[in-house]
Design a protein that fits this description.
0% strand; mainly alpha; binds protoporphyrin IX containing FE
Length: 151
């Protein structure tokens, strides 16, 4: 038994589910009409995205280095790198929605009658939908790599 591996695995799972929750919440919220209160909520939720993602990287790298299987198990496995690539793409896709949420929230605070421009909302919806779809691939790669597929 290895407590470090267990603790890292627990943190990794809790953080990963938190990130799934954040993406899920954003996915649902942007489908509604975006009132000033909803925009504030979106900004609040989105602020946690970066923090959770950073913690996932720390816990994930911790699992690679201190996990039971040893780092060699992962670095030569293309499923592992596919998982990393999917995670990086999800992170990159989240940038535009973050920038838009902040800008809309700022404009809604400055002028109470502010309406989110339809074209901008449509593009953010596409970004978040794509982000959520690619996120679903990550546990698929994770499960495969953990079982030795990908060499
Ligand atoms: C820098 C980012 C990440 C790194 C370095 C990383 C690394 C790892 C490592 C080393 C394991 C252990 C696999 C094993 O038992 O051999 C693991 C498991 C897992 N990871 Fe990640 N991970 C990262 C991000 C994520 C993300 C964003 C998700 C989101 C879904 C995720 C989902 C999982 C799942 C579900 C498992 C359990 C797989 C299983 O045992 O079936 N990981 N990860």
């Amino acid at each position: 038994m290895d407590t470090t591996d267990l603790v890292l695995a627990i943190f990794h799972h809790l953080l990963v589910f938190s990130l799934a929750g954040i993406i899920g919440a954003e996915f649902v919220l942007i489908r509604s009409d975006l009132s000033a209160a909803t925009l504030k909520r979106l900004v609040g939720i989105d602020r946690h995205y970066g923090i959770i993602a950073m913690l996932i990287i720390v816990a994930g790298i911790g699992r690679v280095i201190y996990g039971l299987k040893g780092w060699e198990f992962y670095v030569y496995n293309w499923m592992f790198w596919a998982k990393m690539a999917a995670f990086a793409i999800v992170g990159l896709l989240s940038i535009i929605p973050t920038v838009r949420f902040l800008s809309w929230n700022r404009q809604a605070s400055a002028s109470p009658g502010f309406q989110v421009p339809a074209a901008e909302l449509a593009s953010v919806r596409t970004y978040v939908r794509t982000e959520a779809s690619i996120f679903l691939l990550i546990p698929v790669f994770a499960a495969a790599m953990a079982r030795g597929y990908g060499y």
